[in-house]
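Researcher: Structure for this, please.
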Amino acid sequence: MASKRRVVREKVLQALYAHEISRDPIEPIIDYVVSELKKDPATFEFARKLITKVLETEEELDTIIRGRVANWEFSRLALIDRVILRMCICELLYFEDIPPKVSINEAIEIARRFSTEKSDKFVNGVLESVLDDLRANGKLHKSGRGLVETSSRKTRS
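Model: Predicted structure, token format:
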């Protein structure tokens, strides 16, 4: 059974993917795709915040992704993988209360469920590289018990 946050992240993925494909305004997409989360205001607010922050920082997130996939044409990456990477990197950068390993593990599981056969390994490799870079450059700002990791570790292979 998927965790509550995974269900939320899957809805966020669906909303961002729909927006990317249609280029329709995000509000009606949120109302349609994420509306069932309104039963729990905190859950709905997390989904809305993640969607909004990914869209606000999309250029920055894509620049980070491009830096990790230099041997690939960015436009040739599976769209679903790009959206998953954007979501996770956004969490790493802007959601101080979510441990990096949680964000990365969720991204891997979502890639495994929604994308191609090898996407989970691809997503893991890109995100581990991004995480190492954020740590090395002092850009990883996590606070709270259990949120600060002192050494780099591989999440899954």
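Researcher: Any notable elements?
Model: Helices lie at 4-22, 26-33, 41-56, 58-68, 79-94, 100-114, 119-136. Residues 4-136 form a domain with the N-utilizing Substance Protein B Homolog; Chain A fold (CATH 1.10.940.10).
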